[in-house]
């Protein structure tokens, strides 16, 4: 029996390795081309191995777009959005899921609608609004917009999680004389922390990768985020392949680092149930 | 148990607070006393325009003490997508590079977002520096159609479609530079007989339709071009020129001058395949010139005008435009004036660009000289015929799909001409409404 299962195990392993390689392949191509000089790329093509390590493309790109500033902008925007959106979602969900306000189903449907609206439909209204209040071309405008957009999803998700919150625990807390505010911070938040952490990570990564609205709202180079800065290299008719790859590499590294830091939170948040 | 998460949350909150503080600090930078000219363009720093314009910025700052130029490099897409919104706000730059054409500069001028610079043009004599077909894309009437009316932009450079050729492969197969379409065909026949596909073509993007247009232009004149591009005349897609273009193109595919698989090749791959020496000929625009010059290492190359044509696809380059909301229009005019001076124009020419007002004697690089002489010939014939995808919105995709059918052989040249005629006629019918 055991001997028979061996080849099957190897087959699964092999399939997994092939799958992993397929997933890694695009990253490897990007990394290779980022390390090639333009003439090397032109003569050997995109799939050849780099002949040496050519870092000039990465350095040039960093200086050309002032990448440090863009990183800071992206961190400030994504970080603020993640924290604010989780906070607002929590308040909303507390009212909808545990507070059970009247008409909560319709409120949820409304939030879901807001979440599914394509951003292209929002651009012009948001543009006029932000111009009216003097926030056009500020990072604050993007933070507010994405806080609202992410909150729509967060509220929807958290409400359904909190509506299955064990009522005994809430009851016990109230018997002990806890106010609503205390119930939220001393009971609900600690128990749903894994879910909140997952939301935080998702909001951060989603906001980090946003391109269209930041492109429209952050017109000064000083305010731009990383994905918008990558767009600088796309010329009208020509592209600079090696530098594009260098920029792509620089663009994905922060997201990968962030993922590696929080991956334990992510897996734990998904596996942990609401009651424990 | 959750310390990692908590610490991360704390770090993010700190970033948030720091960020909010940074946000309140980024008001305006007009407190320093001196004036600032905010300038946007989207040319790479090593391109001919990038090099010439950074020189122009230095020159401007030297001649305007106390004025600082705040240059921001933008992406082409970003300006295309956001220009109408940006120019309609207080955050508009003082001067920017913008795409020429009815759908871009024409549309913005119609919406009142661009400054009419006709008076300055006459005062500073820019109109005398630009040949008629270069002026076409700088002037727009009240319908936003190019060719006449007020001046809304100034081009510094030109571009045109020509033939790049691999001198080594020409010599190896005993082929001379052709001067007529027949000689060109014969040259390609020689390559095919030797088992070499002569033309590098990108059928997925603009290159293939430009070849078809070049072929049509061999039977066309200025009146034909103006009718097609500026709607001042009847356009018949089954006239001699269009028919010649489509049938000859289909014939070239059949004879193997154009590879069957080129329908799926994009412009970038076309360029790299020519640069790596796989094809003897590439038909494309002067925008490739700098890149070919920088990256071809293994063979000698040169350029010539499309054999036998007096006209060729081409136009002025992109324009300097001044937003109506610009706060420093006078400074912007001064900047344009500097970019039109011989010194900057010559720099543009020597860096692989096609200047509009350079001093031919000051162009030292022999290859650049050849390029600029070709342009002078074309411009002398009043031969800039613009691009086939210009006249109607979304026409680019119509042409790509039509020409792909010719390459794949899935439609006859007559069917393709019908297909590309329809959207054009529909749009032409709505002009001025």
From TrEMBL, chain A:
Membrane topology summary: Multi-pass membrane protein
GO cellular component: plasma membrane
Main localization category: membrane
Pfam assignment, any one: BPD_transp_1
InterPro entries the UniProt entry points to: MetI-like, MetI-like_sf
Transmembrane parts of this sequence: 12-35, 71-93, 105-128, 140-162, 183-208, 243-262
GO terms of biological process kind: transmembrane transport
Localisation: Cell membrane
Keyword annotations: Cell membrane, Membrane, Transmembrane, Transmembrane helix, Transport
Residue ranges constituting the ABC transmembrane type-1 domain according to the UniProt record: 71-262
Family to which the UniProt record says this protein belongs: Belongs to the binding-protein-dependent transport system permease family.
PANTHER family attached to this UniProt entry: ABC TRANSPORTER PERMEASE PROTEIN MG189-RELATED-RELATED, SN-GLYCEROL-3-PHOSPHATE TRANSPORT SYSTEM PERMEASE PROTEIN UGPE
Annotated protein name in UniProt: ABC transporter permease
Organism from which the protein derives: Micromonospora deserti
From TrEMBL, chain B:
Signal sequence coordinates: 1-22
KW Membrane (keyword) present: no
Assigned keywords, A-Z: Signal
Protein name: Sugar ABC transporter substrate-binding protein
InterPro entries, sorted: Bact_solute-bd_prot1, SBP
Entry-linked Pfam families: SBP_bac_1
UniProt keyword Signal present: yes
């Amino acid at each position: 029996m055991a001997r028979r299962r061996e080849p099957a195990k190897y087959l699964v392993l092999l399939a997994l390795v092939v799958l992993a390689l397929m997933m890694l392949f695009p990253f490897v191509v990007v990394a290779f081309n980022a390390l090639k000089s333009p003439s090397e790329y032109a003569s050997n093509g995109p799939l050849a191995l780099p002949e040496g390590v050519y870092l000039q493309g990465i350095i040039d790109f960093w200086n050309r777009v002032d990448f440090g500033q863009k990183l800071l902008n992206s961190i400030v925007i994504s970080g603020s959005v993640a924290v604010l959106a989780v906070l607002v979602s929590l308040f909303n969900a507390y009212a909808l899921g545990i507070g059970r306000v009247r008409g909560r189903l319709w409120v949820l449907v409304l939030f879901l609608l807001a979440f599914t609206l394509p951003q292209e439909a929002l651009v012009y209204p948001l543009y006029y609004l932000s111009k009216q209040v003097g926030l056009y071309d500020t990072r604050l405008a993007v933070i507010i917009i994405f806080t609202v957009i992410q909150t729509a999803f967060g509220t929807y998700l958290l409400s359904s999680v909190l509506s299955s919150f064990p009522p005994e625990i809430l009851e016990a807390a109230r018997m002990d004389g806890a106010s609503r505010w205390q119930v939220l911070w001393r009971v609900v938040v600690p128990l749903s922390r894994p879910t909140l952490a997952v939301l935080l990570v998702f909001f951060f990564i989603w906001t980090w990768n946003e391109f269209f609205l930041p492109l429209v709202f952050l017109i000064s180079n000083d305010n731009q985020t990383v994905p918008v800065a990558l767009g600088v290299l796309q010329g009208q008719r020509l592209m600079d392949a090696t530098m594009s790859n260098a920029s792509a590499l620089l663009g994905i590294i922060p997201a990968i680092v962030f993922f590696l830091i929080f991956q334990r939170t992510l897996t734990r948040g998904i596996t942990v149930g609401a009651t424990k | 148990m959750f310390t990692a998460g908590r610490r991360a949350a704390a770090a993010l909150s700190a970033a948030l607070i720091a960020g909010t503080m940074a946000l309140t600090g980024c008001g305006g930078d007009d407190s320093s006393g001196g004036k600032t000219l905010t300038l946007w363009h989207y040319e790479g720093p090593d391109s001919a325009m990038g090099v010439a314009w950074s020189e122009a910025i230095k020159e401007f700052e030297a001649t305007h003490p106390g004025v600082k130029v705040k240059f921001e490099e933008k992406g082409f897409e970003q300006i295309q997508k956001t220009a109408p919104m940006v120019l309609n706000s207080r955050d508009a730059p003082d001067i920017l590079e913008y795409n020429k054409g009815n759908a871009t500069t024409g549309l913005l001028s119609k919406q009142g977002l661009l400054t009419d610079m006709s008076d300055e043009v006459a005062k500073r004599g820019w109109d005398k520096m630009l040949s008629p077909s270069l002026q076409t894309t700088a002037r727009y009437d009240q319908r936003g159609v190019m060719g006449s009316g007020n001046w809304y932009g100034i081009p510094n450079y030109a571009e045109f479609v020509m033939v790049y050729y691999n001198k080594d492969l020409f010599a190896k197969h005993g082929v001379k530079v052709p001067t007529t379409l027949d000689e060109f065909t014969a040259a390609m026949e020689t390559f095919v007989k030797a088992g070499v596909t002569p033309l590098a073509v990108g059928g997925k993007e603009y290159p293939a339709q430009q070849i078809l247009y070049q072929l049509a232009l061999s039977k066309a004149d200025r009146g034909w071009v103006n009718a097609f591009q500026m709607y001042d005349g009847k356009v018949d897609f089954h006239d001699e020129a269009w028919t010649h273009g489509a049938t000859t193109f289909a014939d070239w595919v059949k004879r193997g001058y154009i590879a069957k698989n080129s329908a799926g090749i994009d412009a970038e791959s076309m360029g790299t395949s020519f640069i790596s020496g796989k094809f003897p000929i590439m038909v494309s625009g002067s925008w490739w010139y700098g890149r070919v010059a920088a990256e071809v290492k293994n063979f000698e190359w040169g350029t010539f005008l499309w054999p036998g044509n007096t006209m060729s696809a081409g136009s002025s380059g992109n324009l300097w435009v001044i937003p109506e909301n610009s706060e420093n229009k006078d400074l912007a005019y001064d900047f344009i004036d500097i970019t039109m001076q011989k010194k900057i124009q010559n720099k543009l020419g020597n860096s692989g660009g096609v200047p509009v007002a350079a001093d031919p004697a000051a162009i030292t690089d022999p290859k650049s000289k050849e390029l600029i002489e070709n342009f002078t010939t074309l411009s002398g014939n009043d031969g800039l015929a613009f691009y086939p995808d210009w006249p109607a919105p979304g026409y680019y995709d119509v042409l790509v799909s039509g020409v792909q059918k010719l390459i794949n052989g899935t439609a006859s040249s007559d069917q393709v001409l019908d297909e590309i005629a329809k959207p054009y006629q529909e749009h032409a019918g709505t002009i001025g409404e």
